[in-house]
Amino acid sequence: MKLSRLFIFVLVICFLSAISVSAQGLTAKGLKGGVSLAKFIGSDASIGTVDPSMAVKFAIGGFLNFEVSEQVSIRPEAYYSSKGSKYEEGGEELTFTMNYIDIPVLVVLKAGDNFGIFAGPQLGIYLNGEITNEGSVDIESDNVTSPAFDLVFGANYFFNQFHIDARYAMGISKTFDVTSDDDDVRHGVIQILFGIAL
Description:
This protein has about 200 residues and is mainly beta.
């Protein structure tokens, strides 16, 4: 509970910082989307002897960019994001698909004319999901931690009004809210996102 409050505090501070620098002007806004490679991480992410493997998912959304200085900006974003994990053994496949609204607030450091690095907290609001094998079973919201909290870090490259992000979102909150406090299953997501400034 204390960790959740800390992340909410950090998110609020980041949003207030973005508002406070808005007088300097919104330097960019646009759309962004791309592919996600998602799997469960944590010491309890395996099912029996089967380790989780990457599941190909996606994310699509938009961003705003507020310049604090020539080198630093704050970039709040919002995405419809699909996460989850895959388990394979003996030709059988079990797939978790979990859909969220993700809201990262990133601090971006300009490291060159066309290159930047970034990091920040992310809030995830669970929407729906399912487990598929031969059939499918819904993942009820009562069984999922929401809101969830992640740490996001990565780098981006700009060319004209386009840019590409490579990032990793590491889950801080446990994914499921039906297991014991000792269970450690969290989201781990690698993303390659393409953006366009409008």
